[in-house]
Amino acid sequence: MPLIELWQRSADIVLKYNIKQIVSSAGDGVLSDSTECSKELRHYLNNIPTEKLFEHVDYCLESSFDRSGYVLQDIVNELGRRLDYVVSDGLYQGRINKIGFDGIWTAPDGWSIVLEIKTTDAYRINLDAIAQYRTKLIESGDITARSSMLIVVGRSDTGDLEAQIRGSRHAWDTRIISLDALTNL
């Protein structure tokens, strides 16, 4: 039974599932761009209580599973919707001739935020690539120059990444937030 149908019939049962079980129940269970699985997952995330989103964030960070980073991306974008941003979901995986952002959040005043979501800051992030996403989005008319970049990191220890940003030419238009801080908003 498709996840959306199961949700409509027995939401109380579905709310007992962990996020890995939810993904395996959505579509064919393989989370990829523009699939029934991603459509059903996003529908589910859009309809659950916020506290359940927080549980799913914790599960993604504590239990690595296939495509857990993609799931985390959808959860973060759903958090943006709940903070009253208009959200454009990005691609799970970059493709040739496509702009590889994780999400765009647009505030009521028109300011846009280009998101990059990482489970950890253990690895260096190519800030030039993220800035290039923003530049390409401006050139394509998807956002205006009234925009910035936000890196959302799963772990609270963001010191290395903060230093990387401070020491780069992108320090003026790049911000960072931990998922813990984001969920506290």
Question: Topology of this structure?
Answer:
Elements: H1 3-14, H2 19-25, H3 36-47, H4 50-62, H5 68-82, E1 86-89, E2 103-106, E3 112-118, H6 127-140, E4 147-153, H7 159-166, E5 174-178, H8 179-184
Parallel strand pairs: 3-4, 4-5
Antiparallel strand pairs: 1-2, 2-3
Helix pairs in contact: 3-5, 4-5
If you had to describe this structure to a student in words, what would you say it looks like?
Strands 1-2-3-4-5 form a 5-stranded mixed β-sheet, with helices on both faces. 47% of the residues lie in helices and 15% in strands. The protein is α/β, with parallel strands linked by helices. Helix 3 (36-47) crosses helix 5 and helix 4 runs antiparallel to helix 5 (68-82). It contains 8 helices and 5 strands, in the order H-H-H-H-H-E-E-E-H-E-H-E-H. It has a single domain (3-184), classed as Type II restriction endonuclease, HindIII (Restriction Endonuclease, 3-Layer(aba) Sandwich), CATH 3.40.91.
Keywords:
5 strands; alpha/beta; five-stranded mixed beta sheet; 185 residues; Restriction Endonuclease; 8 helices
- Percent of residues in helices comes to 40-55%
How many beta-strand elements? 5
Terminal residue distance: 35 Å
What's the CATH H-level superfamily name?
Type II restriction endonuclease, HindIII
The CATH topology name reads Restriction Endonuclease
The figure for the number of domains is 1
Number of helices, counting only DSSP H or I runs of 4 residues or more? 8
Strand order of the largest sheet: 1-2-3-4-5
